[in-house]
Amino acid sequence: MSGEHKVGVTTYATPTDTQVVITRVVAAPRRLVFDAWTNPKYVPRWLSGLEGWTMPVCEIDLRPGGSFHYVWRGADGSEMGMRGSYKEIVPPERLVSTETWGPEMRPPGSEVVEWPETLNTLVLTEVGGRTTITLTVTYPSKAARDAALQTGMKDGMDQGFTRLDTVLKTLA
Amino acid sequence: MQLKGYGRTVQGRLNATFAALADPTRRAIVARLAMGQASVAELARPFAMSQPAISKHLKVLERAGLISRGRDAQRRPRRLEARALAEATGWLERYREIWEANLRRLDALLDEIKAEERTRARTHSSKRSSP
To answer: Which of A69, A123, B123, B130 has an alpha carbon 20 to 30 Å from A165's alpha carbon atom?
Structure first.
């Protein structure tokens, strides 16, 4: 394949109406990548988000039906949380989980009812000691994805502002 | 807060956009313009504010590139510049930004784990070879 991915380059694609796919090649065997992705000892060290944020809560119950809970804290002390549960665990190659942003994510007074739950599928393939990470995030509908991706300007406006308020809080 | 990995110009532009949108009146103006262009008088109507006060807000939005003036010389209707707003609120951009930062750290962490494993393997084999 001529479009082979390079180490250190992330690609983002929207192959269907409801999905976002993130692809990245890392210079490590997938056994280590799977561990970095699922071990609470490692997760907060890399999944902490934007510069200046930390991940003070990282609870992982890695078994089918088990849940995880992440909380991020911004430099100004504002927090946002995420919860999910594991549907499928096939180390070191596949991890399927649901994911939803917690109410902490909602700015006070906002009327956003619920953040859509997404289904996240992580697939790790290894060739010559390098691992291709493919993370597919599936939204419940095109509308939900578009709202999340903020492509529909008018319809997504309110959600955009809600999100913007959150972003402003973190930038303040 | 620094947006790591972002070009200076983009960062500067975003700062201006966020500063402009930090004000609730200006956000309301942007929301109104999302429904279509409007004159200064039309924009001032829902607010208990004088036209000059509204004009001040419009200037801030204009400087941030969020709105522009239409061609109609008499009404000078303001309209939304969707691209600037999309840049500010674009989730995909933020998504990218967050994931880029995460994955850069993942690279570094994986290097560290690999090095640890190598050290462990060396210690282990030297232990085994010693009596």
So the answer is: A69
Q: Is B92 on the interface with A (CB under 8 A)?
A: yes
Q: CB B113 to CB A51 under 8 A? A: no
- Stretch among A124-128, A150-154, B31-35, B39-43 having the lowest mean pLDDT: A150-154
Task: State how far the Cα of A10 lies from the Cα of A165, in Å rounded to an integer.
Answer: 27
Q: Among B24, B21, B115, which residue's Cα sits nearest to residue B63?
A: B21
The answer, yes or no, to whether ipTM is higher than 0.85 is no
CB of B64 within 8 Å of any CB in chain A?
no
**A143 interface with B at CB cutoff 8 Å:** no
What's the gap in Å between the CA of A88 and the closest CA on chain B? 22
Nearest CB neighbour to A163, from listed B2, B89, B97: B89
Choose from A28-37, B41-50, B75-84 the range with maximum mean pLDDT: A28-37
SS3 B50: coil
pTM (predicted TM-score): 0.60
User: How do beta strands A19-26 and A130-138 pair?
Assistant: antiparallel
The nearest CA of chain B is from the CA of A4 a distance in Å of 18
A163 touches chain B (CB under 8 A): yes
